[in-house]
Recover the amino acids of this structure.
């Protein structure tokens, strides 16, 4: 859990803009243009040793060509909530999937 914050209830019939952002090892929740909660580096940061093991294993199994990446799935769910979703957008920056970017990110984080 990142934070436990109580907000005013949403007004029935009024549209609410909700954004969930996961960028550069920081997650944040925005409601109507205001950041409500966000992670800190202590809560959510790269696990360099684990990432390095993943790269080493992928290099052994697939060579320098890299491993096949499975498509990411997105789920939206609710419990005891009646609502309508309009103008839903899922955006992903493909830069982070470019070949070798994970290896470069680990080196930068480690100061190499």
């Amino acid at each position: 859990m990142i934070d436990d914050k109580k907000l005013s209830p949403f007004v029935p019939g009024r549209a609410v803009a909700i954004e969930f952002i996961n960028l550069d090892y920081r997650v944040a929740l925005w409601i109507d243009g205001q950041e409500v909660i966000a992670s800190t580096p202590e809560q959510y940061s790269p696990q360099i040793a684990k990432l390095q093991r993943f790269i080493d294993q992928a290099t052994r199994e697939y060579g320098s060509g890299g491993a096949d990446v499975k498509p990411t799935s997105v789920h939206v769910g609710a419990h005891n909530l009646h609502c309508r979703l309009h103008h839903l957008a899922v955006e992903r920056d493909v830069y982070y999937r470019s070949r070798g970017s994970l290896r470069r990110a680990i080196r930068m984080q480690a100061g190499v």
About this structure: The mean pLDDT is 78.
